[in-house]
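hiii so my PI (J.) wants the whole complex modelled not just the main chain, which honestly fair. so below is everything: two entries, each one labled with what it is. i double checked the lines twice but i was tired so who knows lol
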Amino acid sequence: MPVYSDKVMDHFMHPRNVGEIADADGVGEVGNPVCGDMMSFYIKVKDDRLQDIKFKTFGCGAAIAVSSMVSEMAMGKTIEEAMKITPQSVADELEGLPKQKFHCSNLGAQALHKAIEDYLSKKQPVKQAGKSAKVTAAAKKTGPKTRTAAAKAMGGKE
Amino acid sequence: MRKVYLDNASTTSLLPEVREAMLPYLGELYGNPSCMHEWGDAAREGIENSREKLADLIDVDSEDLIFTASGTESNNFAIKGLAMAQQSKGKHIIVSAVEHFSVLNSAKTMEKWGYEVTVIPVDKFGVVDPDDVRKNLRKDTVLVSIIHASSEVGTIQPIRDIAKITRENNVVFHTDAVATVGTIPVSARDLGVDALSLAGNQFYGPKGSAALWVRKGIRIIPFLDGGVQEGGRRAGTENVPAIVGLGTAAEVAKANMGERATKLTTLRDRLLRELPSKIERAIVTGHPRNRLPGHASFCVEFIEGEAMIMLLSSQGVAVTSGSACTSRALKASHVLIAMGLTHAVAQGSLLLSLGIDNTGQDVDYVVEVLPPIVDRLRQMSPLYAKYLKKLKGV
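here's the output for the full assembly
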């Protein structure tokens, strides 16, 4: 029995949006080689929408598939929508991830959110202060919620 | 698509003649070897013939062999049983840092029972220095266990030299020879050890066939209490077909060992030479020469092992890795870390283990398909991008 779903295999074998963006509006990097996975996300933002997303990933099959899926899920979305992507929603879109891979390899949403935060922090702070503060707050809110969802998934379904 | 099995360190195939030898015991010869009738006699004869053949392979008295169900069982039995039998003498055990989990975790269990465990380091090739064993011996040391060859990096240990030291100091010495028995000549007598583990599925015998040899006069506490099977040292109805298969595999291994090793070494040396010449920053792990004949292991920098395995598998090639992602425990191979490799490099671990059915064309194929796979994964790797930037001095 294969370890990974067909969807994971598809994204692993044919990853979407691999690469870097030289003049990215935001860059997010998570993980480290010690724990096995490392992801870098690059975004271009126009009119509050993710116009382009590229990623590079060092890691296992799941890590590569997760990165690819996140890039696809977020492409063209508004920043607010993209911030709502969670490890659980990524795993769901991938038709499930093996239990032991859920935490270590499922860092794509986090890397994307970091890239968005990077973009927001670079924007003119005065003009956009109100808005970016709001989105960042939303992002922070997603954090713990995400972990709870992940914990639930770990205990509940495979 | 070409199918190339290069994971013989995980398990070998079953030789057709081994399967043939087993079949009657899965059919009409179903008796319980403990029984005193025709059915029992036939089963018992199968087991005892097998014991002779296995004894012949490792140069021991057949009556000192205990059949078990796996190399893991043999190792557990040796560590726990030999240590517990000497409780009155002391509670100190020495193992190396490159042992199989069945030895390391058995030693950990003994710690819970009040034993102290010293883990001996290895050098960059994964070799134990016998002097380190000597230095760590204590008055209360009751057991030393050093692996004969690591199935992860293939390095063969100086077991004879270590045995001299343990004998001088009157300490029981066990070696986990699961990776070597049936593959290279192993004489327990010549090695000078007191106990030795082996497993049939490492040399074309069936899974579930294994043994522990314990030198006459050395006490061991049994795990399984019950009847007097295996001289009372391992109770329970014997797995007759598996034991018969093990004996046949041992017989064939002894007859063909030289020829097999010559063939495997030639193929192995091609892999060890050609892959690093085609893939930059791919390092050979383990000892360059003093290693198992069919064993080629590497660390490919900037990428991760599981991804390589999956892409190789999509091209019909079966290999394994010691990367964290491949292991269920999600930890990088303790063997590679003990050899001083960083976690990042150990993540790129790749192990190709050849078997008697592999050919030069198989090697050609792997040497052809692996470099583009590495390249593809490196194009995706942020670590490789950083490495390239560093090279350019950006």
